[in-house]
Amino acid sequence: MDDKDKINITFETLYDLLSREKKKGEIQQLPNGFFQDLLQYLKTKQSMLERLNTEDLLYSVERQKRIKEITNIKSIVQELLLKRIQKITDLALISIRTGKDNLADKPLLEEERIIAKNIVEILNMYKTNVIDRAISFKSPCLKEAMQEKQNEGKGDKINKDNAIIRTEKEDKNSKEKYFGKEEEIEEGNTKKDETEDKDEQPVLIRIITPVPQFLDENGEVIGPFHEEDIVSLPSKIASILIKKGRAEELKESKS
Q1: Partners of residue 231 on adjacent β-strands
Q2: CA 133, 138, 144, 148: dihedral to nearest 10 degrees?
Q3: Which of 43, 80, 97, 230 is deepest in the core (most CB within 10 A)?
Q4: Angstrom distance (rounded) from CA 237 to CA 202
Q5: pTM over 0.90
Q6: What is the pLDDT of residues 129-181, one digit of tens each?
Q7: Is residue 19 pLDDT above 70, yes or no?
């Protein structure tokens, strides 16, 4: 760490940092070890306040001055950090519009870089599941998308190709939920080859209610599907979704 990049935290330096952040459009560089130095500075001020004797009139006046000083310091720090978060959010919005990372080369603190990544992810999710769907005449599905994201990591593993590999228990639950019990699945496996071919014929359906991602009998990933999605699925899968009231078949009109 270079000495030139360090400064002593004082009330004046904090005020200068805030003033510069408010005047400049670009997010400004903060000194190395900013939070560590700030914490030490606040602890020192608090320690000085606690040493003052409240029974002494002179000290009582000095104590009030110290309390006011600490209050002002906290106010400056809060305004400074919130101003920086506002700039980070603005840059994240530009990144969503342009598809370019406008935050990578900005002088962010480690904690700010973490929150910036999360802001971009949330805004991206909103764009994909609300804005893009709205302009495609589809209903928003942000709630479902956020629920799917929350469920990530609860038994799901993602391989290098980003394909989801279900655990054996989730695989079984997924099949039972969307295909019925194992006995029902096995019942169809004893049919003739011609029947199996018929089950694989694609059927065009419209999704009525959101369908989370699941695995078919061959372990292939199906979905997720959102309300109003138009998809073509094998006849057997389509029939199950239609039977469960999650989809309806779209029949081609004959001219």
Answers
A1: 205
A2: -50
A3: 80
A4: 9
A5: no
A6: 899 888 888 888 888 888 777 776 554 444 434 444 444 445 455 545 545 55
A7: yes
Q: Residue 27 corresponds to which amino acid?
A: I
Q: Specify whether the CB–CB gap between 211 and 223 falls below 8 A.
A: yes
CATH of domain 170-249: 3.40.5.50
Looking only at the bridges linking them, the beta strands covering 164-165 and 221-222 are unpaired
Confidence of residue 185 (pLDDT cuts 50, 70, 90): very low
CA distance 18 to 14: 6
Q: What's the chain's length in residues?
A: 255
- Number of Cβ within 10 Å of residue 61's Cβ equals 11
Q: Are 214 and 222 in contact (CB under 8 A)?
A: yes
Give the end-to-end CA distance of the chain in Å, rounded to a whole number.
Answer: 76
Whether 230 and 247 have beta carbons less than 8 Å apart is answered as no
pLDDT at position 1 is 40
The span from the CA of 145 to the CA of 212, in Å, is: 9
Q: How many CB atoms lie within 10 A of CB 84?
A: 21
Burial of residue 57 (CB within 10 Å: 0-12, 13-18, 19+) is: exposed
Choices 3.40.50.1970, 1.10.3720.10, 1.20.58.1030, 3.40.50.720: CATH for 3-133: 1.20.58.1030
What gap in Å lies between CA 213 and CA 207, rounded to an integer?
13
Domain boundaries, the chain: 3-133, 170-249
pLDDT in tens, 64-86: 888 899 999 999 999 999 999 99
The residue type at 20: R
